[in-house]
Amino acid sequence: MSSADKPKQLDVKGNHVMASREKDHSDQNTRLSRIENKLDSLSEAIVSIARAEEKITMLAKYGEAQATQILKIVERLESLEQKVSSNEIVVNVINKLFWILVTGIVGGVTGMYLMQ
Question: Which residues pair with 10 in a beta bridge?
Fold first, then answer.
């Protein structure tokens, strides 16, 4: 029997069964395409989230490294402040001795001129 000789199948409403199957098949293909598109969007979103997590982790490590460097700089600054404080005392003593010496020399020279 050829396809022209076969009786056409009709559903309950009298429509052709083949046309209905083709429409269902087309609807399913459309639905599957939308699902695939959504899955593609989800996979892109997951990749973006993973990249963001990597950036956040990198920034956290960078922040920790900066905090460590700042602590070292603070320690060095405190050490430097202690050295400056001790040097200030020495410089003040030297300054006073210098002016005492200058005053003594000026006084001695003035006394020598007055005695002549």
Answer: 16
